[in-house]
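Suppose you are handed a protein chain with no further information: no name, no annotation, nothing but its sequence. What can you learn? This example shows the usual starting point.
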Amino acid sequence: MALFRIITPSAPLRSGPFADAALDSECLFGEAFEAEQSENEFTFGRLGSDGYRGWVPRYCLGALPTPNTRVIAPMSDVTSQADIKSVGRFVLSLGALVTIAALQDDRAEIIIPSGNGFLPRQHLLPLASGVAGGGAAASHILGDVTQIDDWVAIAERLVASPYKWGGRCAWGLDCSALVQLALAAGGIDAPRDSGPQHHIGSGINDLLHLQRGDLVFWHGHVGIMQDSKTLLHANAHHMAVASEPLGDAIARIAITAGPVTALRRPMPDRVR
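A reasonable first move is to predict its three-dimensional structure. Written in structure tokens, the prediction is:
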């Protein structure tokens, strides 16, 4: 078994070794990928961050240092120089993992396959020690904060991002990816799918006691409460990440997916 990292801004994780195979999920720049076998131009293996398994195009795999930092902006442009006017090389999504080599004023120099690039320092958060797929923390460079207490604010940055089944990037994502990426910025490694996400945190007895940061589940769907009455979710009705009254969502989703199946509070003492 060989260990690679994702060297493209994102990589499709498909159900088979074909370009038109179903998209099961996506891998993000810097994430570890444990390769098991290859067929056609694809490699089958396991994504280190959440254990998802599937086929990834071989050109998306390569060598990078163990990352120490997470991108927390919806999208961040990697530039060739530490200057906002310099040429952009590619764009990274929220959740991408990078290795900081040095700081130049408000720009972080990161290691990329073709050498080095630069990201705004404000777009980065050090990985806590022991985070899946991460190396030594970058707190000595960026400071001691390794998690966002109000992780819902991270999800809110993705409002109007396109809905995409199996997507896990700012340029297209599904309901459980929105939860997973936002919680990761808050210091919680969440499962990829809404089913296993049912077990995050602690249960809530009823809809009358919801608060910011609570999760509302249906069969095959999940959303995040922005407050006691407003739901934020990536959904196929709006075909985007959208905010709406919880009551409206419950009434509409009941027609196709049935009633609410679970209420969970990921961080009981951190988000109000």
